[in-house]
Every structure is written in structure tokens, then in C-alpha cells.
Amino acid sequence: MSQYLVLSHIQIQNANSIAGLTWGFPAITQFLGFTHALNRKISNQYDGEYDVELTGCGVISHTVQNKVYQPKQFSDFEFIQSKNPPVLAKHKNASPPIIEEGKMNLTVSLVIEIDKSVTLTTEKLKEFEQKIEDLCYQMRIAGGTVLNVNKIKVLAASTEKQHIDMVRKIKNLTMAGFVLLDRSEYLQQHYKTLVSRHKENGNANNDPQLLDAWLDFSALKYQAIPKLTKDHTTPDKNTDADWEYVAKPNSGYLVPLMTGYKAISELYASKEVDNTRDELTSSRFVEAIHSVGEWKSMHNTQKITDIIWRYRHDGQWYLCVQKNNIASGDLDINESGIEQIQTLNLNEALNLF
Predict the structure, then answer these.
(1) For residues 132 and 139, is the Cβ–Cβ distance under 8 A?
(2) What is the pTM of this model?
(3) Total domain count for the chain?
């Protein structure tokens, strides 16, 4: 039996816009973090009244408004900053610092996977949905304040016909919008292509790095096409050229994406590291890892399981993945853990560690 909790058209104010080296949309870890926090609140506040387990979520974006400005035409966008704390009477002689941060307003829908089936009467089910709504207004999503939730619905299906009907209902609740999909296999394939092409050209040294493959998806690139004549078959510095846009390695609305963390330290026992959130949980230092994602219209979705992001922990890797990529073998495990070509670790690619 498949069961999902749909939070339709959530309006969020002042969410985090910066995710690792990227900006423009919160990291997928922010939404899975909200799912995990919601699961804990359901368990703690209602004393086992609802035996549910929220194991993953799909993210559908409707509107995005980054709080940025452009100082002048063709210049880079800059985040609108504020001074924190605000200037008070006692601060008149000393201007408070600006804490740099990127904020945004957005509207998203979340399709949350329920692992343990909720078996309730119609009246109890409506009561459960109302309690979920109350919890949402008490929480933050990606660091932002929840202003409004259009509708909350629990949907279930066990037969093939019911699944088709459930997918239709979820689409009705989340349209019009674009769902975020994991395309880490594109990064893997493109990296292999770059290495193969490099060797075919007879270059034995300076092999392409993961960073090169990732930048082909995330950077805006143009190349010069020389205007050669019969008399000049080889371009030089005086040769005219046309600048052409370099398309991304794969088609689709592809974007750079932060998909988790990689450990850069050993695992410390509880109370061993000062100033942690609690004294009961082990801790370790990590760095952000990046991959490639794709925005695709929600009406193209055929299976809800294909859009659900879940946690995956393998040794030093703390990843957010989708089931379709796990099933296809994109996350290969060897003796040293996940192969580095699967998810880009920028700090290692830059040899900073």
C-alpha cells in the first residue's frame, strides 16, 4: 500500500536561498530536514496516537522570488542585506555589522512519503490533517516562515487503478509546478565522456576533473567561432569571430544542486565537541557535496515514487537520493565507499583537503 501526505502550495517567507556553492533555491537537505522534524513532532506531541513514519519527500516549485538587486545593467546580482541587530539608540556611535545571507520568498508543494500506513476513520483522518497543518505553522521550512498552506491531504492506494487515481489527485493538488529530479547519472556519464575524449586526443596528463564536468552543467559558456577566409586558414588575434552559446551536455532544465554532505573528520562521541546542539548525539564535521538536478513539469510524472527524495548514509557520505537512481545502480559502492564520480565533492576536486 502506498500512502502520501500532500502539503499543497506552501507560501514561505525569507527562506535560505544559498545552498553550498549555489544560490537561487534551497538545498534538498532543507526539505528533508523539515520532513524529519515533522515526523519527530508527530511522534512526540501526540504520544503515539499516530503510528506513522515519514521517510522522504518530493519537492514541487510554483513561484520563486530571490531578494536580490542588480547595481547596474549586465552586472552580477547581489543579495539585499540588512544589519543585524538593527540600529538602536545605543548603537548610534557604532554601526552594527552586516551578516551576509541570501533570502527568498517561494511557494512549494511537498509530497511526503508515509512508510507506515495510517488507518483512520474519515473523521479521524480530517483531524490528523488539521493537526499536521497546525504543526506546519509552528515550524520553519528552509529557515523561512510558513505563511499559508493551501491544502493538506492524505492519499493512499493499493491497487493499480487506485494508484492511477492517486497520481491524478496529487497532480491536481500540485499543479502548476515543476518537480525537482535527481540527475546525478548525467554528471557521471559526462565525466566519463570527458575522460574518454581526453585520452582519444592523446593527452596523457591533466585529466579532466569532476569540477570540469560539473561546471559544464552549471556555468554559462560561450565559444568563439573564427571567421576564416581562403587566405587565412588559421585564426590569429586579428581574426573576427562569432560567439555561440555552448549547450549543456544533456537536454532539459538542468541546474547545479546540493545533495548532501561528506565527512571531513572522524565521528566524535557525545560531549566530546563543545557547543553542539545536544550532548547525546555523536557529531562530525562535514562539507557540502554537489550534483545535477532537473526541473520537470509535474504533469509528466507517472510514478510518485520517482520524485521522492530520501536519506542515504554510506560511511562518510550523507546523501539525498531518489529511488530511481538507486535502482539503476548509479550509486555504486566499493571498498572505499561511494565512487567520487557519482556526486561531486568540490573541495576535494579543488584539492583543498
Answers:
(1) no
(2) 0.81
(3) 2
